[in-house]
Specification:
By secondary structure, the chain is mostly helical. The protein has six helices and no strands. GO terms for molecular function: peroxiredoxin activity.
């Protein structure tokens, strides 16, 4: 079951309350919770691929952390980035690897 998301309200609730509501309740509350149709693990892979392809690295960092929690291994993330390097761009892959190294570091 998808974890209840509050990032929208926590970060933008006072400034953009409707956007925060849509983020938390619709995107994460309704779409991400449709695990019968597509697992959270698969949604994480798709989301990380999309964000890397677009070069949206602040969001990619947050979603890589979610991907790790959703069961995406370091090796799978490395393969995702390597594969996308040829489609999304080499510099984007370098940036994504920097995030992945930090997130998947053994602490």
């Amino acid at each position: 079951m998808a974890k209840k998301q509050t990032a929208g309200r926590n970060n933008l609730g006072d400034f953009a309350p409707k956007f925060a509501e849509l983020n938390d309740d619709v995107l994460f509350g309704e779409v991400w919770s449709r695990e019968k149709e597509l697992s959270a693990r698969d949604r994480s892979m798709i989301t990380c691929a999309s964000l890397m392809s677009q070069g949206l690295f602040p969001q990619l960092e947050a979603h890589m952390k979610m991907a790790k929690q959703n069961g995406i291994s370091k090796d799978e993330m490395v393969e995702l980035i390597t594969h996308l390097a040829f489609y999304a761009g080499w510099p984007k892959a370098w940036s994504a690897f920097g995030l992945a190294k930090k997130i998947y570091a053994d602490k």
